[in-house]
Amino acid sequence: MPDKLTVDLHPLFRSDRDIDKAIRNTIFRAAGEKVPLVEIIPGKGSGKLRSRVLAMLNQPHLKKLYRRVEVAPGNEGMVLVHLK
């Protein structure tokens, strides 16, 4: 069992549907496999993609799967999702 799953959003940044699907699939997979941490890499940039990721993670059907979300300390281009 892996100790974390990582999803890099750099290749998907132009497609909102692909971004949503990638995040949703990774969170559900991690919850199903009991992986404690998901790293989502939206990149540094202007912060629009990171705020979109954080808004998506705030949806009720995803929110019930994790304990907390944080921007990685020292790396604002990575969002860490700690699952239950």
UniProtKB/TrEMBL annotation:
Source superkingdom: Bacteria
InterPro entries: Smr_dom, Smr_dom_sf
Domain Smr: 1-84
Pfam families recorded: Smr (PF01713)
Protein name: DNA mismatch repair protein MutS
